[in-house]
């Protein structure tokens, strides 16, 4: 506020405020920081060989300079930060989601075909009798998570020379800063974090699948966690025919590409597949695969019912309470309101987790208080009821607040006019209060519906989408589309991000359609009003 | 992420709340309203009472929990803070950093954008606003597979912004910052008389001076509201947090408490969990109770008289 009176006083036209020195310094400091950051990012990108990334970074930097280092483009000065974030973290993911929906991206299908060929070849390496062994230290690039980052082999040849092997190939490791034990095992190397025995053992599955491709005909594999050998692969790739031939058995088995795996005539596949375009297959699967389609329909119906019942129940309870407390003579309204707001103020994850405990069959509060013995979270219908009850508790204060605000905004003269015309309290409520209230909160009800339609955390934290019918762990009784997509992408037997993306696109169209028709309807309502 | 609905909640009360509070002459007594009110309070409060008593329950398991505590002890809090495999203080710190930095950034970006849309005239202003509204129909969390893949790749290039980093998560949240609140903010910016800007401009103030020293102060109430809503939204966000933060030390309260409440040990850990959940609720509850006025429509001051 303080600045306003100053500016209102009559001052000479254009007397001007000189920009304080620290503001200019801050501005140029921030531009310099952006430059430095971009330089760092570009250096990292070049090291990773991502030239597209370099171009994008340079473009963003040019935009920043053009907008902030000049006096032009004033609106952009205010929009650019949000715009960069919006494009890179909201629009790009949407595009990427759509693109992924047309691929088979998922477990076993994360690499390009060439990478998949290399890995399959490298994994077929068999030790050649009498070939030399390396001392091995298993490492990850510095800063990477020891449990998940890409593996690297730090190798010492019997002659003492050191190498680093990744899935890209073998490179010499400069001796600077490398420390070795007496036996030659590397204990420290700049740029790498060496895994200890326990951490290495935890990654034994990755180790089994990992091999360093040395050439088209040789690869390095580990034996245990401190030795490695170089050997010749038994699989050979024939680029002309696009087939892999296993030479370790006679007669040789020929694997040809099928469903993004190299597949033998008897149906056996090589372990690593590749990512490829599958066209509309994911969408077709959702619509035509018997089990998925039936489940998808079931999930969809429950999803709509869940969102609709949640909105209705919370709105009804909230509205009744708002009407209850909408009496000017009532004392202690603030007290009631402060306490009634509490369920809404408690973070959603706490609510869901606490109610999950209260619905525990053996020891839960709900069964104890009601002397029932309902298996709330284990029975399909009871779990649905449990979710709706929890969401009612969670959501009614919001509706209560909204309705209270809307009720207070209804002019009292309208009600008085109705009274003079002879309307009783219920008639006034039905013909005056309710229509006005609905016009005010209508859009909020639609927004609430759209929010609940994707209410991931409530379902996931309360039931994880379960209970599951025996034998079918992919589709639970309380799954929403989004929890289903989440399970498809990140858990279950074989994560399939491509299919999950297709589900997300379905959700998008459903939500967009509903919001659109909903908003049109409220627009009509308002016109009538 | 839930800002869309939350934000709308405030829009209604703020504008209209104060228009009429004229007393009406309604007959009858109010005792039945109190009776129903008390019933509503029991419904609203019993889970909270249960949570408090479970947190204070010395036995600390779900089997021994009850609505009214028989004995009280702070033992659960002791275990909570001294459990090395469940670093509650780290979770708390992570949650607070993510919510504070994320919502401050969100408010600032939103305010800048709202200033441009409300005060400046430029080509693409209206289409831009409409495009932002349309984008809100595609909830950011629906793109979680793509966000996961993007940040997994980003982590290879800039390790500080890979998965398992709270800064990467903040960045992911900030993607929606401009779209989520710009309409709410712009609506409020529009209520501030343009004459003020013009007077300042005549005096020779630059657009930056007008924005930082004048407009931002005048719209403070809506900034507080938007800050509060984003804070609560980010504090409770679970989906992205759970796929980004897998390392136990980098997790948020939501993800951490969830990991305590599943598995074989959930009944034994219940007291510890309840204590943690109770403390986790505090920031948001205090924020709501403290800023109730902002939430329920005391926001008619603010504009210049």
From TrEMBL, chain A:
GO molecular function: ABC-type maltose transporter activity
Locations listed in the record: Cell membrane
Signal peptide span: none
Keyword Transmembrane helix among record annotations: yes
GO biological process, any: maltodextrin transmembrane transport
Annotated membrane topology: Multi-pass membrane protein
Taxonomic lineage: Bacteria, Bacillati, Actinomycetota, Actinomycetes, Micrococcales
Keyword Chaperone: no
Record family assignment: Belongs to the binding-protein-dependent transport system permease family. MalFG subfamily.
Domain ABC transmembrane type-1: from-to ranges: 300-518
Membrane spanning stretches: 21-43, 49-69, 78-99, 300-326, 338-360, 380-407, 428-451, 497-516
Gene Ontology, cellular component aspect: maltose transport complex
PROSITE patterns named among the record's database cross-references: ABC_TM1
Top-rank taxon: Bacteria
Task of the protein: Part of the ABC transporter complex MalEFGK involved in maltose/maltodextrin import. Probably responsible for the translocation of the substrate across the membrane.
Record key words, sorted: Cell membrane, Membrane, Sugar transport, Transmembrane, Transmembrane helix, Transport
Pfam families per the UniProt record, alphabetical: BPD_transp_1, TM_PBP2_N
Protein name: Maltose/maltodextrin transport system permease protein
UniProtKB/TrEMBL annotation, chain B:
A GO term from the CC aspect: plasma membrane
Keyword annotations: Cell membrane, Membrane, Sugar transport, Transmembrane, Transmembrane helix, Transport
Domain of life: Bacteria
ABC transmembrane type-1 domain span: 92-291
CDD domains cross-referenced by the UniProt entry: TM_PBP2
Transmembrane segments: 34-56, 96-117, 129-151, 157-184, 218-245, 269-291
Topological type in the membrane: Multi-pass membrane protein
Organism: Nostocoides australiense Ben110
Alphabetized InterPro entries for the sequence: BP-dep_ABC_trans_perm, MetI-like, MetI-like_sf
GO molecular function ontology, one term from the record: ABC-type maltose transporter activity
SUPFAM superfamilies for the chain: MetI-like (SSF161098)
Gene Ontology biological process terms in this record: maltodextrin transmembrane transport
Listed name of the protein: Arabinogalactan oligomer permease
Compartment(s): Cell membrane
Family: Belongs to the binding-protein-dependent transport system permease family. MalFG subfamily.
PANTHER family: MALTOSE TRANSPORT SYSTEM PERMEASE-RELATED, MALTOSE_MALTODEXTRIN TRANSPORT SYSTEM PERMEASE PROTEIN MALG
């Amino acid at each position: 506020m303080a600045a306003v009176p100053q500016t209102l006083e009559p001052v000479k036209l254009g007397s001007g405020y000189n920009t304080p020195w620290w503001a200019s310094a801050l501005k140029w400091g921030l531009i310099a920081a952006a430059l430095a950051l971009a330089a760092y990012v570009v250096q990292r990108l070049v090291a990773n060989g991502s030239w597209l990334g370099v171009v994008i970074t340079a473009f963003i930097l040019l935009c920043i300079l053009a907008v902030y280092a000049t006096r032009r483009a004033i609106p952009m000065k205010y929009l650019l930060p949000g715009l960069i974030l919006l494009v890179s973290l909201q629009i790009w993911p949407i595009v990427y989601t759509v693109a992924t929906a047309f691929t088979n991206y998922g477990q076993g299908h994360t690499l390009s075909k060439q990478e998949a060929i290399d890995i399959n070849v490298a994994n077929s390496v068999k030790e050649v009798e009498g070939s030399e062994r390396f001392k091995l230290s298993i490492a990850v690039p510095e800063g990477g998570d020891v449990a998940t980052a890409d593996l690297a082999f730090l190798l010492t040849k019997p002659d003492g020379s050191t190498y680093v092997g990744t899935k890209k190939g073998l490179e010499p490791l400069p001796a600077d800063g490398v420390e070795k034990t007496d036996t030659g095992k590397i204990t420290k190397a700049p740029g790498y974090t060496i895994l200890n025995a326990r951490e290495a053992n935890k990654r034994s599955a990755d180790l089994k699948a990992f091999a360093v491709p040395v050439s088209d005909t040789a690869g390095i594999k580990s034996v245990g966690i401190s030795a490695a050998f170089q050997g010749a692969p038994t699989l050979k790739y024939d680029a002309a025919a696009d087939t892999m031939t296993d030479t370790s058995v006679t007669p040789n088995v020929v694997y040809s590409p099928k469903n993004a795996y190299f597949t033998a005539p008897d149906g056996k596949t090589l372990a690593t597949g590749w990512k490829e375009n599958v066209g509309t297959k994911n969408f077709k699967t959702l619509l035509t695969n018997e089990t998925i389609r039936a489940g998808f329909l079931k999930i969809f119906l429950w999803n709509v019912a869940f969102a609709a019942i949640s909105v209705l129940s919370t709105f009804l309870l909230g509205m009744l309470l708002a009407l209850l407390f909408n009496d000017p003579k009532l004392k202690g309204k603030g007290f009631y309101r402060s306490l009634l707001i509490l369920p809404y103020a408690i973070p959603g994850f706490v609510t869901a987790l606490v109610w999950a405990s209260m619905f525990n069959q053996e020891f839960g509060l709900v069964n104890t208080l009601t002397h029932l013995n309902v298996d709330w979270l284990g029975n399909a219908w009871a779990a649905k009821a449990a979710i709706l009850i929890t969401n009612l508790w969670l959501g009614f204060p919001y509706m209560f607040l909204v309705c209270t605000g809307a009720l207070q905004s209804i002019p009292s003269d309208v009600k008085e006019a109705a009274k003079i015309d002879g309307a009783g309290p219920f008639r006034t409520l039905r013909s005056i209060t309710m229509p006005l209230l609905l016009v005010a909160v209508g859009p909020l009800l639609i927004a609430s519906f759209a929010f609940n339609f994707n209410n991931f955390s409530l379902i996931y934290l309360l039931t994880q989408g379960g209970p599951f019918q025996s034998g079918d762990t992919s589709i639970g009784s309380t799954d929403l589309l989004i929890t289903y997509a989440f399970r498809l992408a990140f858990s279950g037997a074989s994560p399939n991000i491509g299919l999950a993306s297709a589900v997300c696109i379905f959700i998008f169209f459903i939500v967009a359609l509903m919001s659109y028709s909903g908003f049109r309807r409220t627009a009509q309502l308002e016109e009538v009003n | 992420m839930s800002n869309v609905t939350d934000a709308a909640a405030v829009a209604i009360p703020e504008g209209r709340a104060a228009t009429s509070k004229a007393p009406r002459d309604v007959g009858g007594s109010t005792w039945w309203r109190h009776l129903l009110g008390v019933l509503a309070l029991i419904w609203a409060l019993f889970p909270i009472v249960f949570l408090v008593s479970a947190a204070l329950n010395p036995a600390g398991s779900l089997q021994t929990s009850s609505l009214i505590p028989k004995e009280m002890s702070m033992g659960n809090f002791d275990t909570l803070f001294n459990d090395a495999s469940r670093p509650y203080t780290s979770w708390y710190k992570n949650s607070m950093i993510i919510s504070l930095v994320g919502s401050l950034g969100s408010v600032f970006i939103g305010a800048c954008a709202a200033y441009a849309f409300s005060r400046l005239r430029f080509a693409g202003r209206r289409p831009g606003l409409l495009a932002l509204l349309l984008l809100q129909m595609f909830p950011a969390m629906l793109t979680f597979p793509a966000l996961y893949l993007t940040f997994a790749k980003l982590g290879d290039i800039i390790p500080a912004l890979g998965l398992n980093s709270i800064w990467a998560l903040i960045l992911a949240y900030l993607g929606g910052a401009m779209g989520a609140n710009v309409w709410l903010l712009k609506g409020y910016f529009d209520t501030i008389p343009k004459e003020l800007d013009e007077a300042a401009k005549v005096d020779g103030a630059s657009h930056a001076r007008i924005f930082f020293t004048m407009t931002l102060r005048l719209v403070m109430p809506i900034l507080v509201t938007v800050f509060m809503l984003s804070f609560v939204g980010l504090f409770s966000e679970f989906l992205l947090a759970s796929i980004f933060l897998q390392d136990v030390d980098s997790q948020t309260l939501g993800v951490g408490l969830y990991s305590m409440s599943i598995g074989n040990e959930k009944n034994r850990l219940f007291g510890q969990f309840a204590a943690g959940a109770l403390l986790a609720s505090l920031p948001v509850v205090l924020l709501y109770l403290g800023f109730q006025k902002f939430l329920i429509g005391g926001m008619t001051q603010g504009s210049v008289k």
